[in-house]
Write a structure and sequence with these properties.
Chain lengths: 111, 124
């Protein structure tokens, strides 16, 4: 069955520290992969997406993600976290007209 | 302005009954989405409305599920003959797009979706 798993429900990091949010997928073929962010009281915003080609994808707000087929992973990274990055992050996988959302990882940032 | 609103906030029903969930999108938003989130799981896309185009029903899990939307306003999600596995939080979201007729796929690449607070459905 197709699935997207985010193993970490909550993560807390210090401001300025590096960040990695994990995402694993299970899909019949190479999926299309996305990371979305939802800040408190805000809408769901697309951070970055992977379709094919270069496995390291750059997104907005200084985020990047790397597609690793051998590990079925699409982890989100940021070298230095800012307090404004505190939000909930969703990994999403799918194909044409089908989106499967992960359960989300809530990120807290300590000053 | 007001955000996306949903009603009821909680609904408890008996197996086999029909339920109707309501979503009021943000005024002016042309696209409306219904999702389901079962306990401990991620969001599951159900159905998508874009303006007056035919809705994308590809995510509906069975023919017991249906949804209607009048123009670019209120939407109702109806679940007939509810089953215990229908217990979940049902979320509605809306977005504004200037692209008429674009697919869910296209929107996934571009749009910001604004979510309502959800309706928590419990089927006994």
């Amino acid at each position: 069955a197709q699935s997207v798993t985010q193993p970490d429900i909550h993560i807390t990091v210090s401001e300025g520290a590096s960040l990695e949010l994990r995402c694993n997928y299970s899909y019949g073929a190479t999926p299309y992969l996305f990371w979305y962010v939802q800040s408190p009281g805000q809408g769901l915003q697309l951070l970055l997406k992977y379709f094919s080609g270069d496995t390291l994808v750059q997104g907005i707000k200084g985020f990047e993600a790397e597609f690793k087929r051998s590990q079925s992973s699409f982890n989100l990274r940021k070298p230095s976290v800012h307090w404004s990055d505190a939000a909930e992050y969703f990994c999403v996988g799918g194909g044409y007209n089908k989106l499967i959302f992960g359960a989300g990882t809530r990120l807290a940032v300590h000053p | 302005g007001a955000g996306v609103s949903q009603s009821p906030s909680n609904k408890v029903t008996e197996k086999g009954k029909d339920v109707e969930l309501r979503c009021d999108p943000i005024s002016g938003h042309t696209a409306l989405y219904w999702y389901r989130q079962r306990l401990g799981q991620g969001l599951e896309f159900l159905i998508y409305f874009q303006g007056n185009s035919a809705p994308d029903k590809s995510g509906l899990p069975s023919d017991r599920f249906s949804a209607e939307r009048t123009g670019e306003s209120v939407s109702t999600l109806t679940i007939q003959r509810t089953q215990q596995e229908d217990s979940a939080v049902y979320l509605c979201a809306s977005s504004f797009t200037q692209s008429r007729g674009v697919t869910l796929w296209g929107l996934a690449m571009q749009e910001t979706q604004y979510f309502g607070p959800g309706t928590r459905l419990l089927v006994l």
